[in-house]
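Reopening this one. Same input as before:
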Amino acid sequence: MAVLKRILSFFVSILLLVAKLLCLAVRLVLSLFLLVVQMVLVIFHAGSSL
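Same output, byte for byte:
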């Protein structure tokens, strides 16, 4: 029974770690996407004003 609990807690901690990493990855991708969108908008704006 104790071994089962230990394995279960191990899996739960791994799942939490994976969830945190996924959250960080999603935030990173979103920030990069927003940065690229801003760059594209700036470039298009500069191109249209010339």
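So the earlier flakiness isn't reproducible anymore. For the record, The chain has one domain: 1-50.
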